[in-house]
Amino acid sequence: MLKGILTSILFFIVINSEAQLGVMKMVGNNTKNYSFGIGAYIKGVFPVSQAGDLTLELGANIFFLNDGGSGDGTALVPIKAGYRYSLNGTGMGFYVEPQIGYNIYGVTSANVDGTTENFTFHGLVLAAGTGYLFLIGNTPLDLNLHYETIIDHGGSDNYISLGLSFYLHFGKRDSEQ
Asked: In this structure, are residues 41 and 16 in contact, taking their beta carbons and an 8 Å threshold?
């Protein structure tokens, strides 16, 4: 299962240069045995004003357990919609971005009495992020920090991610305002 998710991440990286790579850390109860995770996402950005964008994001994240390499861990595939607002009103610089969505697929693999068992889950995703948008040449880059929680079956999975990307941009901002 985790090999399939890893293959999907590599597909995003190779096929879409707009995919973001991120380093993540699972936080909260019962997460001390998790090492840093990795993730990738594709994000569509749709300008609605000079300072604001609607965003649509599909991601894939993997968190490995510090268990000596048995392959146990957690994989997530969230889809989220959000609103990114640049604080200086230009569409660049520092921004804030609340998001809401759904974890369309989640699995936790655990070693139970010598056999690997997979526990699947879905749930509501709530996220809050901040970052800095800037240009290198004509290429827009996004350095960001996000907190995300997935609520399922009365519990939650929480993580913090740090990422760098350039993003899909549909339409142009009106630079004459």
From this structure: no
